């Protein structure tokens, strides 16, 4: 019985050390965005004028859902690193360690832009690259990203990975006197045994798909 107990303790220690070691590095993931389904055009056009990352990173946030960075913290991170940062790794005790970044050439701004293009395309809109196309009543969209973050919550038997996306969409047309602001927010979570890059990518993919569908639902209601 003593030998068995000792073996179990060694196993638990080994797992904890393994998880801690994995949590200290900087993981890289690539978000493969869903391809837009081919639909009939509805005769309307949309111009995505800008997508801007407005997230605020903190060095010692009070909760894990607030963006933060390892490897010297926010002060040592370049703007390009911040735009690619999507999660903070933690060890088995919940202590913040390494980071999860998007792959080179991909940022949260590009992910949201492509997600919006997919949403509009699947609704039948023609996405144009300038707003002064003829005299049509083009919809002009400016997106600010308030949250695009995934985080881990430790548990006794499993951990929980959560992914949240929140954007404010400024919507106007060339004939409007003012803009309308619409908040699009989604949240996804699931339980895992460990937080691998594959699991981080999986939970973020779920939120991106939810985001695309929520944008579609909003504009479908406005037709």
Summarize the helices and strands and which ones pair or pack.
Layout: H1 2-23, E1 26-29, E2 45-53, H2 79-84, E3 85-90, E4 96-102, H3 108-123, E5 126-128, E6 139-153, E7 159-173, E8 180-192, H4 197-221
Parallel strand pairs: 1-4, 2-5, 2-6
Antiparallel strand pairs: 3-4, 6-7, 7-8
Architecture overview:
- There is one protein chain.
- The protein is of the alpha/beta class and 223 residues long.
- It has one domain (2-221).
- The protein contains 4 helices and 8 strands.
- The strands form 2 sheets. A 5-stranded mixed beta sheet has the order 5-2-6-7-8. Strands 1-4-3 form a 3-stranded mixed beta sheet.
- A hairpin with a 5-residue loop joins strand 6 (139-153) and strand 7 (159-173).
- The longest helix has 25 residues, at 197-221.
- It starts with a helix and ends with a helix.
Shape: elongated
What is the end-to-end distance?
70 Å
Helix/sheet category: alpha/beta
Round the Cα radius of gyration to an integer and report it: 21 Å
H/E topology pattern: HEEHEEHEEEEH
Number of domains: 1
- Beta-strand content estimate: 25-35%
Number of strands: 8
């Amino acid at each position: 019985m003593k030998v068995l107990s000792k073996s179990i303790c060694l196993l638990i220690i080994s797992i904890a050390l393994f998880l801690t070691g994995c949590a200290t590095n900087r993981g890289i993931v690539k978000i493969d965005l869903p391809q837009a389904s081919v639909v009939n055009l509805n005769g309307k056009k949309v111009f995505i004028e800008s997508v801007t990352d407005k997230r605020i990173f903190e060095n010692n946030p009070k909760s894990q859902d607030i963006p933060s960075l390892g490897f010297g913290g926010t002060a040592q991170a370049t703007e390009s690193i911040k735009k690619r940062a999507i999660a903070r790794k933690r060890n088995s005790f919940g202590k913040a360690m390494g980071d999860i970044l998007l792959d080179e050439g991909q940022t949260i701004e590009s992910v949201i832009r492509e997600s919006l293009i997919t949403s509009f395309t699947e609704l039948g809109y023609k996405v144009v690259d300038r707003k002064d196309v003829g005299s049509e009543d083009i919809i002009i969209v400016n997106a600010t990203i308030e949250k695009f973050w995934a985080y881990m919550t430790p548990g006794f038997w499993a951990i929980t990975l959560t992914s949240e996306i929140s954007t404010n969409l400024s919507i106007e047309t060339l004939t409007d006197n003012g803009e309308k602001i619409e908040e699009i927010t989604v949240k996804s979570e699931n339980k895992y045994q460990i937080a691998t890059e594959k699991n981080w990518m999986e939970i973020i993919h779920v939120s991106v798909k939810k985001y695309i569908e929520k944008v579609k639902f909003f504009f479908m209601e406005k037709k």
